[in-house]
């Protein structure tokens, strides 16, 4: 399993990797960590891929929607 980045501020969520790291750690049966885009530096496609995986996980496993922002809103959160 890779070293996931430490989340220090809200903008650190913009690549989706930190949140997916939590999901992979606590729910390894639902998400395979090898599918995550962990390339450095992250491209826009990598960020969107991770966030789409996160959005799909939430939609399929949680009883209600907790992902209220659009993917682009999260990607551009760091700016």
Mean pLDDT, as a whole number? 83
The fraction of residues assigned to DSSP E strands is: under 5%
Radius of gyration, whole Å: 12 Å
| Gross morphology | globular
Structural class: mainly alpha
pLDDT < 50 stretches: none
Helix content: 40-55%
Q: How do the SSEs run, as a string of H and E?
A: HHH
Count of β-strands: 0
Give the N-to-C terminal Cα separation.
29 Å
The biggest sheet amounts to: none
Number of helices: 3
What do you see in this structure?
The protein has 79 residues and is an all-alpha fold. It is built from three helices and no strands. α1 (17-26) packs parallel to α2 (44-61). It is globular, with a radius of gyration of 12 Å.
Features:
79 residues, mainly alpha, 3 helices, 0% strand
Give the gist of this structure.
The protein is mostly helical and 79 residues long. Helices cover 42% and strands 0% of the residues.
Topology:
Blueprint lengths: L16 H10 L17 H18 L9 H5 L4
